[in-house]
Design brief:
Structural class: alpha+beta
Strand content: 5-15%
Number of strands: 4
Largest sheet: 2 strands, parallel
Strand order of the largest sheet: 1-2
Number of helices: 4
Distance between the termini: 33 Å
Length: about 130
């Protein structure tokens, strides 16, 4: 369900209505993780445990990716939106930081600034951002 939801609602080209539906769908299927059962109780080469941990990590990443994409009203790099075709550096020149509250499945988003300087400007001058065109 998670894979199909991500492919259907957060594909390469995105639109607001699809992202909103994707958020709802992931939120709907998130509680299914509570039904996950492990049969292998061994502590050596426990592939059941590894797969369960990988699934939990993938669901966390999917939730934060979907909610972050829905919140960002612009196109930037690999985040291409059909309904917001241009970059909006004035509003969106910032990093998205997301958290998932595991017990509730609630996603929280915050932002931090993009630093436009290099560590050593004598060695490497800053490169100003520009539109990515193909």
């Amino acid at each position: 369900d998670m894979q199909r939801t991500m492919q259907r609602y957060a594909a390469v080209f995105r639109k607001q209505d699809l992202l909103e539906t994707g958020c709802k769908e992931l939120t709907r299927i998130y509680p299914d993780l509570n039904n996950l059962k492990l049969h292998d109780r061994g502590m050596i080469w426990n592939s059941d445990l590894v797969e369960a941990l990988e699934l939990q990590n993938l669901m966390t990443q999917a939730m934060i990716t979907m909610y972050s994409a829905e919140a960002r009203k612009e196109s930037r790099g690999a985040h291409a939106r059909d309904d917001f075709t241009k970059r909006d550096d004035k509003t969106w020149m910032k990093h998205t930081v997301g958290w998932l509250d595991v017990p509730t499945g609630k996603v929280s988003l915050d932002y931090r600034p993009v630093h436009m300087n290099t560590l050593d400007e004598n060695e490497m001058k800053p490169i100003p951002p520009k539109q990515r065109v193909y």
